[in-house]
Amino acid sequence: QVQLVESGGGLVQAGGSLRLSCAASGLSFSSYTMGWFRQAPGKEREFTAAITWSGSATSYADSVKGRFTISRDNAKNTVNLSMDSLKPEDTAVYYCAARHYSRNSFHLWGQGTQVTVSS
Question: For residues 46 and 23, what is the distance between their CA atoms, to the nearest angstrom?
């Protein structure tokens, strides 16, 4: 079955960096746009970043643009999110997501990894 497994979350001080990874299995990875979403306590899940199947195009939420970088390795079936200059408001559960090229929305989700940024 399809699995998306996130890793790399943790506690970091404001201004610090973290790198999240998502390992995908059970799917034809290069057929999927991959994304990261996050959900802060008491808030809706929100889009954070996405990368097309080839890695040729990326998109970011305005709140993370210039600080976060999404990348993928199709040979290893992984997608990463490098997060720099972290702020307390980046504290959230971060979810890896996948969208097949034939679909209009992300439909496969990981279990999430907690990122906590202390001030």
Answer: 21
